[in-house]
Design goal:
Number of helices of chain A: 6
Number of domains of chain A: 2
Oligomer: heterodimer
Distance between the termini of chain A: 23 Å
Distance between the termini of chain B: 68 Å
CATH architecture of the largest domain in chain A: 7 Propeller
Structural class of chain B: alpha+beta
CATH class of the largest domain in chain A: Mainly Beta
Number of strands of chain A: 12
Strand content of chain A: 15-25%
Number of helices of chain B: 6
Shape of chain A: rod-shaped
Largest sheet of chain B: 6 strands, antiparallel
Order of helices and strands of chain B: HHEHEHEEEEHH
Strand order of the largest sheet of chain B: 1-6-5-4-3-2
Strand content of chain B: 15-25%
Helix content of chain A: 40-55%
Number of domains of chain B: 1
Shape of chain B: globular
Largest sheet of chain A: 4 strands, antiparallel
Order of helices and strands of chain A: HHHEEEEEEEEEEEEHHH
Largest interface: A-B, 13 and 14 residues
Strand order of the largest sheet of chain A: 1-2-3-4
Radius of gyration of chain A: 33 Å
Number of strands of chain B: 6
């Protein structure tokens, strides 16, 4: 083999080696995240949330503020971001705007703009009432009446319902009503709920998907992973090329040897 | 030209029948379903509280814990109507079920939110439930043919039918 050919092969070796080193790390990330994503349900990646502050900061997930709260016989109904809490218990993750809450002997009625949730004091859902149950949309305020009736103020007018929220009746504007007023949420509870809500914002599945696609590194991330893919393609081709070269060289050497022996 | 138009019409028809986005939606408003069920006037709703014994049977039927502690229904003599929600794959399917004297009179998909399995709304499927009652083991008295590609929706509807029949039984003794 002449020197030029040797140098060429040597340089391909070197490129193959360097490309291998660079691609190895990225290939490892791709492989590990790929396996994990293939078993998302078994690993419960969609139900496990990131707790690490630095990662939440990396995703720009801010500490949500407790919007409004209603105090009921020592219990607090609070909305933090889109989540609804009864004291520290998360009761709904898709809460629309909180309009008020009323306490009854065995349960709590939480009025939101488009629905009413009936909850036990332990935070267990009794029933979610929506338009299907005759609940008018656009609820603004809620008020309890002396005879256990409930008054609702909506954008469509005023409605009266019984304490079981079974029947609804449209009424004229009431002369007086004791509308439930939002209150400032105690500082300790506010901080606790904000932190709790923030820690439920980012599922592990999202992180693994972003690691796999490279998006975790921002807009340039996918290009990094594309480079890794190109490097892997180069490795496959250069590896085959080097192997074939060696194979041909070996065969040629063997042929020469056998020719010399026959002489 | 005629052939071209005919081809376009076929393509549109295929799109209309296969596009999942068009299959999703409200097929009947629940209040209209109730008015249709009780044309002489919809009775006031009543509720079934899922007490310990009822709850365990409901769990057995649904194969998961019920999402609420009470379920409402509408009753006139021995006829009850139920509007139930059960998740097919990811989103709830709202179904109206009418039970008359312990047998299923009608089941209708009211709101379908999933992207697949909407075929369960068709009469050729729901008609199979007519006349079904509940066996001792809380399964339906008659077999229901499935629909390929709609297994989870089929399962959800069967659970709703069984649940309505069971809850009807529990309430029938109540005056």
């Amino acid at each position: 083999m002449d020197n030029v050919k040797k140098r060429k092969l040597k340089s391909l070796y070197i490129w193959h080696r360097y490309a291998g080193i660079v691609a190895a790390l990225l290939a490892l990330v791709l492989a590990v995240t790929g396996i994990a994503l293939n078993h998302t349900q078994r690993l419960q990646l969609d139900q496990t949330f990131v707790q690490a502050d630095w990662l939440l900061n990396w995703y720009d997930i801010e500490l949500p503020e407790a919007k409004t709260g209603y105090q009921l016989d020592g219990h607090w109904v609070t909305q933090v971001g889109g989540k609804l809490y009864l004291d520290d218990t998360l009761v709904a993750e898709d809460a629309s705007d909180l309009a008020g809450a009323l306490a009854f002997t065995h349960y709590v009625a939480v009025a939101q703009s488009a629905q009413i949730r009936l909850l036990t004091y332990e935070g267990e859902l009794i029933e979610t009432l929506g338009s299907m149950h005759g609940v008018p949309s656009g609820i603004r305020q809620i008020a309890g009446k002396a005879n256990d009736e409930v008054l609702i103020d909506t954008y469509q007018g005023y409605y009266l319902t019984d304490k079981d929220f079974l029947t609804w009746k449209k009424i004229d504007r009431p002369v007086s009503a004791n509308w439930v007023q939002a209150q400032a949420v105690p500082e300790q509870l506010r901080v606790r709920l904000s932190q709790q809500t923030r820690a439920q914002e980012l599922p592990m599945e999202r992180v693994f998907l972003d690691l796999h696609s490279g998006r975790i590194l921002g807009p340039w991330g996918p290009w990094v992973m594309d480079t890794a893919a190109l490097l892997l393609m180069f490795l496959a081709i250069s590896g085959c090329w080097i192997w074939m070269k060696q194979l041909f060289r070996k065969k040629r050497r063997n042929r020469r040897k056998s020719a010399l022996l026959t002489k | 030209m005629y052939r071209f138009r005919f081809g376009i019409a076929i393509l549109i028809a295929m799109f209309m029948t296969t596009n999942p986005a068009l299959a999703r939606g409200i097929y009947q408003q629940p209040d209209v379903f109730l008015q249709e069920t009780f044309p002489e006037g919809v009775p006031d709703p009543e509720v079934v509280w899922l007490t310990k014994s009822i709850r365990s049977a409901v769990e057995d039927i649904l194969a998961h814990k019920p999402t609420a502690l009470r379920i409402r229904y509408w009753r006139k003599q021995d006829r009850t109507a139920w509007i139930l929600e059960e998740i097919g794959k990811e989103k709830p399917i709202t179904t109206g079920v009418v039970i008359n004297k312990g047998t299923l009179e009608k089941i209708k998909v009211l709101v379908f939110r999933e992207s697949r399995g909407w075929e369960v709304r068709h009469d050729f499927y729901t008609d199979q439930f007519k006349g079904a009652s509940l066996k001792q083991d809380h399964y339906l008295s008659q077999s229901i043919d499935g629909i390929s590609g709609a297994t989870l929706s089929v399962r959800a509807l069967q659970k709703q039918a069984r649940l309505a029949l069971y809850l009807h039984q529990t309430q029938l003794s109540t005056p």
